[in-house]
Write a structure and sequence with these properties.
Bound molecules: zinc ion
Radius of gyration: 18 Å
Order of helices and strands: HHHEHEHEHEHEEHHHEE
Strand order of the largest sheet: 3-2-1-4-5-6-7-8
Number of strands: 8
Shape: globular
């Protein structure tokens, strides 16, 4: 019988992640790094659901699941981890149930409520990356500020109608923009949940969420394997109508109240 190659993986984990490990851009070192990683997933909706599926499938060792909402029937068109029987159940609890069925080896913590300036430092402690897929600017800006303060990189993802947007930010670094540099302060007080009014093609949330998961793996492998170039400050726009993609770079705003010299 063929012996498994030497390495940090027990045979069942080696089999599970074989298609990653065989990629030179990931390899055994990359897979081991993913296993050591801690990602905080804020928002378990249209973006968070497919992102969770691919992050868990990628073998991320520790996931913190943050969402205070309950599953609604209208979510099922795009929030792919939930089923009919999850309706009226908490999203964070349902997401953890999905995760427990998928891979018992994943460490999961949950916060069944909103994230804000009061609890963000504790939730972000020790995290390697935050993936924010929430649908309102007040939360997004609070998460961004908390990431800058905790020196944790942020992947910000949003989707509406036929358009998605994913950007990686490292605003805690002197030369890198934060999410607030991108959108400004005007949205702090506005709770902008336009999904119900504007509609959204379900698969558009899937494309955006899985693109965010792809980018999360890239960030986590930065400095470990050749896949990692996080492209800090670059925002990718996903156009599902044409379809097409384009990208642009956000410059750090020295006057930014989140990461500029006045804030730090
Ligand atoms: Zn900034």
């Amino acid at each position: 019988m063929k012996q498994p190659p030497e390495g940090p993986f027990p045979p069942e984990r080696l089999a599970r992640f074989a298609r990653h490990i065989v990629l030179p851009e990931v390899g055994g070192a990359g897979q081991a790094a993913l296993e050591r990683s801690h990602v905080v997933l804020v928002g378990l909706g249209g973006i968070g659901s497919p992102a969770l599926q691919y992050l868990a499938a990628a073998g991320i060792g520790r996931l913190t699941l943050v969402d205070g909402d309950k599953v609604d029937a209208s979510n099922l068109q795009r929030q792919t981890i939930y089923t009919t029987r999850d309706i009226e159940h908490g999203k964070a609890v349902s997401a953890r149930r999905w995760l427990a069925n998928f891979d018992v080896a994943t460490e999961a913590e949950l916060h069944d409520g909103r994230i804000g300036p009061d609890n963000a430092p504790a939730l972000l402690e020790g995290a390697d990356l935050v993936l924010d897929g929430t649908d309102n600017f007040a939360t997004r800006l609070a998460v961004s500020d908390a990431c800058v303060a905790a020196q944790v990189p942020l992947l910000s993802a949003a989707v509406g109608r036929f358009q998605g947007q994913v950007g990686a930010f490292a605003g805690h670094r002197a030369d890198q923009a934060c999410y607030r540099c991108f959108v400004g302060d005007a949205f702090d007080a506005e709770d902008c949940d336009s999904c119900a009014e504007d509609g959204m093609l379900g698969a558009m949330a899937g494309w955006t969420g899985t693109f965010a998961a792809l980018h999360a793996v890239r960030v986590l492998l930065d400095g470990v394997s050749s896949f990692g170039d996080p492209q800090w400050g670059t925002v990718h726009l996903l156009d599902g109508m044409t379809p097409a993609m384009r990208s642009f770079l956000i410059a750090k705003d020295p006057a930014c109240s989140g990461c500029g010299s006045a804030a730090l």
